[in-house]
Specification:
InterPro entries: HMG_CoA_synt_C_dom (IPR013746), HMG_CoA_synth_N (IPR013528), HMG_CoA_synthase_prok (IPR011554), Thiolase-like (IPR016039). By secondary structure, the chain is an alpha+beta fold. It has 13 helices and 18 strands.
Length: about 400
C-alpha cells in the first residue's frame, strides 16, 4: 500500500522584518544575515497569533469536506505549546470542523515532533486504509532582542493530510533514526526563551546526519545517486548547504545536483525564518513548488533533527501530476502580500507578551483579517479562538 502526503499547505503571519534593516540597526554587516545564515525576511507573530491559530490557518487552507469526514487522527507537533494539559490538537480539531470520532493529541521533541507525527500517521493508515490523518508542525521561534539567536527567529505552520494513494509524495518505509541525550538546545518550563549552545548544536546536527545516513545506506543499499534532491530541517537556510557538503564530501556530480535543488528548497524558508517543527516541511513544500526539474518517481531524501536530540533520515517519491495538487500561487501571494514591520515596531512587539498572572486578554478586532483564525481572548484563564 502506498501512503504519504496527499495535501500540504502553510501559513505565516502577515508581517515580517527585513533582515538587512535589522542588521543595520544591530551594527552588523547585512551579508552576515543574508549570506552568512541565508535569511532575507523574518516572520513576526502578533499577540493574537500563536501555534494553535497558525496551525488552524494552515489546515484550513487545504481541508475540504471529504477530508473532514475521513480524518480520524490529528497529530500536532510543536515546542510552542499553550497549555500544559490540553493539547493544541484539540483546538485544531474543533476549529477546522473535523468529524468528532477522531483522536487528537500533541507531540513534543524539539523540531523533530512533526516527523514523529508523520511516522505515527503512516502506521495508522496502514491499519486503517480508508482513514486520513492531519499532521501539523507549528511554532514561534523567539530568542529576544540583541541575542545571538535573534536573526534565526520566525513563525509559521505547515499542515499535511496523510492518506493512502497520496497525490503528492509517497513516503517510503525506510527510516533510519537516532536518539542521544545531549544539551544543545532546550527551554525550561520557567523560560520564555530557549537556551542554546550554538556551535555544539550545529555540530550535533551534522553528526546526527552522518550517523543516520550511514545507517540508512546499510538498511536500504541506496546512495546519493538514488536521490534527485534532499530536504533538511532548516534552523536557518545556510544549514542545508553545510549538510549537503557533509553528505557529498565534495563529490562534484552529487554536489551540483543537490545544490541546484537546495536553492529551490530554501525559497520559502528564506522569507519566513525558523519555524521549528515545520521547517523541514516548509523546505519540502518550497522544493515541490519552486523546482522545475522534479519528475514523477523522483526520490527526495528528508532529514529531520530535533535538539536534545533525535534525528531521522527517510525518503519519498514524487507522484504523477503532483503539481496539480499544490497551491503555489496562493503560497507565493501569502509571502508577497505581508506588511513590513519597521524595526522600532518590531522591537516593541517582541517585548510584549500575554499575561502570566491570570489577567484577561482581548485582541484588537482591527488587527484581524477575514477568514483567519486568531486567539481573540483569554478570559478566566481559558483561551478563546475564533475564525473571523
Amino acid at each position: 500500500m502506498n501512503i504519504g502526503i496527499d495535501k500540504i499547505g502553510f501559513y505565516t503571519p502577515e508581517q515580517y522584518v527585513d533582515m538587512e534593516k535589522l542588521a543595520e540597526v544591530r551594527g552588523v554587516e547585512p551579508a552576515k544575515y543574508t549570506i552568512g545564515i541565508g535569511q532575507e525576511r523574518m516572520a513576526v507573530a502578533s499577540l493574537h497569533e500563536d501555534a494553535v491559530s497558525m496551525a488552524v490557518n494552515a489546515a484550513l487552507s487545504i481541508l475540504d469536506d471529504e477530508d473532514r469526514k475521513a480524518i480520524d487522527l490529528v497529530l500536532f507537533g510543536t515546542e510552542s505549546g499553550v497549555d500544559h494539559s490540553k493539547s493544541a490538537a484539540v483546538w485544531v480539531h474543533h476549529l477546522t470542523g473535523i468529524q468528532k470520532n477522531a483522536r487528537s493529541f500533541e507531540l513534543k521533541q524539539a523540531c523533530y515532533s512533526a516527523t514523529g507525527g508523520i511516522k505515527m500517521a503512516l502506521g495508522h493508515i496502514a491499519l486503517n486504509p480508508e482513514s486520513k490523518a492531519l499532521v501539523i508542525g507549528s511554532d514561534i521561534a523567539k530568542y529576544g532582542l540583541n541575542t545571538s539567536g535573534e536573526p534565526t527567529q520566525g513563525a509559521g505552520a505547515v499542515a499535511m493530510v496523510i492518506s493512502s494513494d497520496p497525490r503528492i509524495l509517497v513516503l517510503d518505509n525506510d527510516s533510519a533514526a537516532l536518539t542521544k541525550d545531549i544539551s544543545d538546545f532546550w527551554r525550561p518550563l520557567y523560560s520564555d526563551y530557549a537556551f542554546v549552545d550554538g556551535k555544539f548544536s550545529n555540530e550535533s546536527y551534522l553528526s546526527f546526519l552522518e550517523d543516520v545516513w550511514e545507517n540508512y545506506k546499510e538498511k536500504t543499499d541506496r546512495d546519493l545517486k538514488d536521490f534527485e534532491a534532499v530536504c533538511f530541517h532548516l534552523p536557518y537556510t545556510k544549514m542545508a548547504k553545510k549538510a549537503i557538503l557533509r553528505l557529498t564530501k565534495d563529490a562534484k556530480e552529487e554536489t551540483e545536483r543537490l545544490m541546484t535543488h537546495y536553492e529551490n528548497s530554501i525559497v520559502y524558508n528564506k522569507q519566513v525564518g525558523n519555524i521549528y517543527t515545520g521547517s523541514l516541511y516548509l523546505s519540502l513544500l518550497s522544493l515541490l513548488e519552486q523546482s522545475s526539474k522534479l519528475t514523477e518517481g523522483s526520490r527526495i531524501g528528508l532529514f529531520s533533527y530535533g535538539s536534545g536530540a533525535v534525528g531521522e533520515f527517510f525518503s519519498g517519491t514524487v507522484q504523477p501530476r503532483y503539481e496539480d495538487f499544490l497551491n503555489k500561487e496562493m503560497h507565493e501571494a501569502t509571502l508577497e502580500n505581508r506588511r513590513e514591520l519597521p524595526i522600532e515596531e518590531y522591537e516593541e512587539l517582541l517585548q510584549k507578551s500575554l499575561p502570566k498572572d491570570g489577567s484577561d486578554f482581548e485582541a484588537k478586532s482591527d488587527q484581524l483579517s477575514e477568514g483567519r483564525a486568531y486567539l481573540v481572548a483569554i478570559k478566566e484563564n481559558i483561551r478563546k479562538y475564533e475564525i473571523k
